[in-house]
Structure formats: C-alpha cells, structure tokens
From TrEMBL:
Tagged with keyword Chloroplast: yes
Name under which the protein is recorded: RNA polymerase beta' subunit
This protein's UniProt keywords: Chloroplast, Plastid
Amino acid sequence: MNIFFQRKLVKYFGNIKKKKH
C-alpha cells in the first residue's frame, strides 16, 4: 500500500470523525 494513499485515508476518516462529533 502507498504511504500517500494511507495518509489520505487517515485524513478522510479523521474528517468523518470530526463531522460526527
């Protein structure tokens, strides 16, 4: 797996968690 892709996923999931509160 690409580190860049993994970082993108982490940022994406982090955004969802922030939206969920």
